[in-house]
Amino acid sequence: MVTATAVRTAFAxxxxxxxVRMRAGSVGAPVERLRSPSILNHPxxxxxxLRADMVELLCHAAPADSQAAISFGAAIDHLTGTVFxxxxxxxxxxxxxxxxxxxxxxxxxxxxxxxxxxxxAVVDFAAEQSRPGVRRVGYLTLxxxxxxxxxxxxxxxxxxxxNGLQGEVGHLPVMSxxxxxxxxxxxxxxxxHFASIASGPGIARVAERLGLKTEIPEWLPExxxxxxxxxxxxxxxxxxxxxxxxxxxxxxxxxxxLIGLGGGVVEGLGAHYSDxxxxxxxxxxxxxxxxxxxxxxxxxxxxxxxxxxxxxRGAQRVGQWLPGITS
Length: 327
Ligand SMILES: [Zn+2]
Prior knowledge:
Layout: E1 10-15, E2 19-24, E3 32-35, H1 47-61, E4 67-72, E5 76-77, E6 82-83, H2 87-90, E7 97-98, H3 99-106, E8 111-116, H4 117-129, E9 136-142, E10 146-152, E11 158-159, H5 194-198, H6 200-209, H7 216-225, H8 229-252, E12 256-262, H9 264-281, H10 294-300, E13 301-303, H11 311-318, E14 325-326
Parallel strand pairs: 1-4, 4-8, 9-12, 11-14, 12-13
Antiparallel strand pairs: 1-2, 2-3, 5-6, 6-7, 9-10
Zinc ion binds at residues 171, 186, 188, 190, 193, 195.
């Protein structure tokens, strides 16, 4: 486990398939942006070489004796820094890679912490949007995939399981009441996952199932603005699993006071998305779920527009949470 000390310089990086953004020092310091040593940028290069290049890049950039927090767009064991695979970085290569161990071996003077980009996002969201009295805060991203993280602000902890994971909800069985959507495949290849319906690719799959043969990202916002009934039905079906999950989470954890929603789906559909989600959450489903008023939802949900949440800034702030990322 990595322990933060007051004397260490902060170093943060946000590693994506296209760019690696890095910053040493405070949150306001300049950002350096380099092309990522990824399969996306170097299709012919071996995964072994790409991983070695990534380690080299980060080890070269980290200041001496720094506290380094690296955000990755991949499932990560937060306890060790093992990366479980990332399509944009390493393609279909699925063998877990202990990048944390590699970095510690190469630069033992640096205190390395590797986090998933949704973890970095919840840290940034908590810092930017939380208010006094908020006990637990969550961040849900709906984009090419779906991920959620919850942080305990009272104890400054982000709990993870024995595999160092938390909130990988995209591949849970989907809560949908629509038999017409049965059997839709997820990006992972399995049917009937949360992401089969509610992610960006999921919305396209639902549209296809409904017989809508059109370019959904371009068509949907305009069709919703024109109150097209097919577009409204599509949105209703794709929002339903999200509403179901939020109801369940609030039922199990009434102290989950604030949740941010972000990612390409939320950004792209804007008020159409937030209005539909709040409409569904407003409906009473039982004595245990009496329906949430608009005022209650405005107090509990934050719909994050493009640029509101920054994984690099979040990674920079991860040091404040150490050693609270723990099982
Ligand atoms: Zn899946």
